[in-house]
Amino acid sequence: MNVGMIGATRRARIVSACSFDVFDTFLLRACTTPDGVFERTYELSGISEVCPNVSTSFVQHRIQAEARARQEAKDRCGLSEVYISDIYSYFPFKLYGLDRRALNDLAEAEFHAELELCGANPGIVDKYLEMKRAGYSTGFISDTYWNTQQLARLLRACSPGLDWDFLYASCDHGSSKSEKLFAKYLLEQGFDAATSLHVGDNENADIRGARRHGLGAHYYPQASAALTSKLQRETATFELLWPDRPSRLDHGGRTLRRVVATQSSEESRGFQLGLTVLGPVMSAFDAFIEARRARLAQTSGRVAIGFLGRDGFLAHRIWQDAHEQEAAYLEINRRVSLVGSANTLEPLCELVGNVAKIDAPTFADIIKTLPPKVAAFFAEREDGVATGRELADALPELIEASEIADVAADIRARLLVYLRKAIPDFDACTDLMLVDLGYAGSVQKSLRRIFDCEGIAIRLHGTYLLALDDAFGDIADDDSAEGFISDFVATPHVKRMIIRNVTLLEQMCCSADGSVRDYRGGEVEREINPRPKEQIALASEIQAGALAFGERARTLGPQHGFRHLAAPDVAARWATAVLARLLLLPDDDELVLLGDFSHDVNLGTHALAPMIDGHTVKNLAVARGIIGACAAPAPPMWLAGSFASISQSHAYLYLLFGANRLPGNVFGETPCGNLEIGLFAANGSLSMETITAYRSGLGELRVRIPIVRTMAVTRIGVPIGRLAHEGILHGVVLQSGDSVEDASKNPQAARLAEDRLIFAGLARNGRHYQASHEDGTLLIPVDPPRSKVAIYTIMITSLGDERAFGRSIGN
């Protein structure tokens, strides 16, 4: 029976009474989980002053005390309902410097925590009053350790003037809703169960419990199963990143997200992702932007705001919805700003040096010129393509600084025409806030050089979602840069891990247009947008959900009394946890939704890089181990998603690495013995070599076999039966380089096709093998190496009980 869909008159005819659950239904708590009340009790009781930084210990002891009290009651009388005083009778007072006389003080502190954190749920209050006006009995039934008097005090504190026809607290009756409390309520009140209704959030106690006693039941869930899973992962992420910070008190941010989510009937998964995950992060960032604008306005003249496109597109839309202050959307990217600021070759070399590969047409499109020496340089390269590093090293000999200066002057002139058109009264501005996702402020620094070249004294203030704070030591003295997620919020290591995976966030936040390539007459000229139309459409759905969250949060937050953005440090930590959870620990639904995303390189090329590539990560894990794979450069652009595509355990290991909690002496590898292998040369000769075998922290066995091109090896024989009589062969991968060190660090690890491998003396079924004798051998073909050195790596998981470590294997 759906309360919201049945008219009041009809309900009056078919329902004689309606009971409501109290906590998480009629009352909502402004904390992440119910035990946030215990965390606040720790603070209100004064224990936090005597025993600081042990809130987690206090919460766990409070939980354990309740469990012991309930078990004692169960053992004594068969029912597990208890009072708050019963719970604290099992609390370890002496641990916190207290004696048992503090029992009542702790119970009172916890009740005050409830008063502080609880608030009436406006939607349920409306339903309660609507049913009361319809003329039938209304009241409350709660599973709680607060007695009826305490419960009444709490209800009226949250909803002044509230009255009821009945009020049942389980502790007063020694029975819960899932036991006998519903039956007692019906008997005492004389209600007909068939014409009565109960509203609650707990599927077992409120819904099944009511129906078991014949009552109608309306389910008011706190969150869907999918959202609940995300919230639990966020808590784990928060506690991993900030183990010494309270993880349950967030001023109502999570409860607000649940309320917003339950009021959404939108079925699009992209919309839901924006509504429940991206929206809360970007709304918190928006509050940070406004706070920074307000501070600047107090000390400056005229402050203009510019959101840098493309990545600042969503942030700009959220700002437009939430504020009356005018703000511009500025399509300025790193490429255009660097070239426009290039009075020397240094910015140009920095720009092209970061390009994987580049050809003459791309260079001409970026720089707007193609000097003869540069054209000749490309003509000498295979297929006319060079690496960005090769070009950057050669540029000082290929192009005159004066040529670049002329090109830069032209771009600056066109850029300034655009800025004056985009920002009203541009020349009257004293300060310009540049809002962007981040990270090292390259556009801000380039604009500073451009403004200085043109004699423009406007101060620049970078305002970033993520800031690499150590990258801003060289900005002008009058300029500033500040990140919402700064080094005071998350450690530099954590931020770099987030930024390593941030291209997913960029794709969700950016506009549907191609990147800017130039300006004409104050208008933007853009690159074509190479991203698939399906990806653009999905990003639009996600953005719509994020905008919807901002709109609903601005209405529902005050209605519920939530002040989720009132404490900037708390808001920043939780926004970081939500973002880090999405980027570093995605769930399977998010992998399915976002896994086909690709990233446009955006340097004058139309190349698309894959967001996820689980095969590459698997190969790197074989070649370099889990820690080596965690440090892999792009692509794939979403490395965490690539780990998650292998397994959720791999994703969590990657999160541990990002939090700097994946110790190398545990998850690295150690030598476990020697193995003699055979190298077959092209002339038919056979040489025996001894190599070291390693065991990883995950129990894998790994051997690496370096082959020098001059050795002319055509086949390698590895007696894997001596490594493990029975096991799983995870594969053979190949890395190449000019030296053993270069090859071992090469992230391009190619897997040899399994049908090329020969199993001699080994019974094989897929990746599983079993040796018929100790000399069971894997024969690996060796192709003529293109580089000086090739390294073949084999990884095996032993399925036997033998442990060969501590002894030589292969002798």
Walk me through the structure.
- The chain is an alpha/beta fold.
- Strands 19, 20, 21, 22, 23, 24, 25, 26, 27, 28 and 29 form an 11-stranded antiparallel β-sheet that branches.
Q: Roughly how many Å is the radius of gyration?
A: 32 Å
Number of strands: 29
Oligomer: single chain
Q: State the end-to-end distance.
A: 76 Å
Low-confidence stretches: 1-13, 805-811
Count of helical regions: 33
Query: Based on helices, strands and strand pairing, what is the structural class?
Result: alpha/beta
- Sheet bearing the most strands, described? 11 strands, antiparallel
User: What overall form do the CA principal axes indicate?
Assistant: globular
Proportion in helices = 40-55%
Mean pLDDT: 92
Strand content: 15-25%
Summarize the structure.
By secondary structure, the chain is α/β, with parallel strands linked by helices. 46% of the residues lie in helices and 20% in strands.
